[in-house]
Amino acid sequence: MPQPFGSWPSPFHAADIASSAPRLDGARFVGDEIWWGESVPAEGGRVTVRSSTGTEVLPSPWSARSRVHEYGGGAWTADADGILYFVEAGGQQVHRLAPGGAPEPLTAPGPAHGGLRLQNGRLLAVREDLSGVPHRRAIVEIPVDGSAADDPTAVVVHAQGPGFFAHPALSPDGSRIAWVQWTGDRMPWESAHVRIARIGGGETGALPTRAALQPEWADDGELLYSDIPDDRWTLHRIGIDGVEPLGRPSPIAPVDADIGYGLWVLGNRWYQPMADGRIVAVRTNGRDEVVVIDQDGGARTIEVPCDGHVSIDDVSGSRMLVTGTGSSVAPGLWSVDLESGAVDAIAGGTPVDSAWMPPARQIVVDGAHGPVHAFAYAPANPQTAAPAGELPPYVVFVHGGPTAHVTGAASAGIAFYTSRGIGVLDVNYGGSTGYGRAYRERLDGRWGIVDVDDVLAAARGLADAGLADPARIAIRGSSAGGWTVLSALVRGGVFGAGISRYGVTDLRALAADTHDFEKEYLNGLVGPLPESEAVYIERSPLTNADRIDVPVLLLQGADDPVVPPSQSEAIRDALAERGIDHEYVVYLGEGHGFRSAPTIVDALERELRFLGRVFGFEPVP
Question: How far out from the chain centre does Cα 408 lie?
Fold first, then answer.
């Protein structure tokens, strides 16, 4: 029997989504087992480590989570004997957990650690010390015998400074170390360099790179890395003599796709060298594919279930471990044999029911600054239908970053809406990764202009094509996406409601309050201060709050260090002063991104009730 859009009964409940949506955080071959990191929403987002044997390697209440650069990553690793090394979420010390034992600290209290890497029995990490001014970061080697827990000087510092560090890689003979480094006045996708140092000596060298990622040693005389000298991140190889490059780097199998994207977290692996000289890599052009690159530069595609945010977490012989999302599967971890093609799901990765979650449709619309890429999810529910002649409401999703991208993945969180008769359009506005450097740099100096123009164009495209009710299109985004939400509402004329999760409202306040990693991000997105102060004021949604005339839902984490609650509170007060319909909810204990099950449930249910109230439908719980 036909029922109004938005009021369809659905099996996708907020509580089920919260409990079934753990985040996977890295994977390793450990002896005959496979281990992976996994968040536990029911335990406040604690990150545990699990084994393919069915056991939990890291028991409660321990949690493996790094806060380096605020976004963390690389919070655990392990050796073949089953010894786990992890960063404890609370104190940020590195711990060692042997089979049958209890966690023992390897570092002293104080600095944070992340990007753990174990090579030839030597434990490398990125260390961050925020206790002094300027803040100090370093590539360090941590003794695995525990001696540094009582004597911090036992930690060996291979490189340090006031800038930022990532991706340490030890040469096979153990005599040199390579890493990625960038200065605080640029973001790593704008400028980052590969550096090499001789261990135990002062000799260092640097490679001729632009925005490098993930150095890996092919052998003692050759280094691999990804860089973006033109429009795409491409693998390169270069000879190394001691710590100095030999000649110019050679690109490896370049194509119109990226091997790499924005370096937000420390644990990503976009490729892995294999023992036989081949390379297995992820290529991104909107969606991802996995390829094996032969020594002669030939490449063949490997069929894997995932095609979004794919990470090659580990290789062993002909097997690899990949994590990611997929257009027809739930997020998961798979073991793939590169020779036989056999694929085994290790965690998650279950196929979705296409009747409830049909694949997203890639669309491109014409925008004021060029083509705009997006993924459209039409309402889908095999058990009901809408009345004839009615067009569905839609929610335009705006990703955070803004230097990030979405991939059209199947998602229970999206099905929460589409199964109820609410369409979703997920937009990769100009500034997104995954479509080349020119597309990403479209946003440079024009944040609050290009992103807004692009989401408006995408929404108008839906309405003009007769796919959405033009009077019932809402916009929803988190962090930088929340900025675009509020900026689009200021522009007006398209969206009938807005949902901002910890969105930026005041650029000057963000520049003053935000954390180190993004301290100078606005220089490229908007312009430097104080020269561009007038632009900061003019573009901020808070300055123009008097132009917002539709209902707004504001959701905020109380402990957010990236976009503090003061940002949401300022726009709340401005809306209240003018009597604009709004709701404001602050979640205690939550930071930048909601992790606990109660928060995830409450946020989803509030969004649904809000949309129903504004757009005139009665949602079914």
Answer: 15
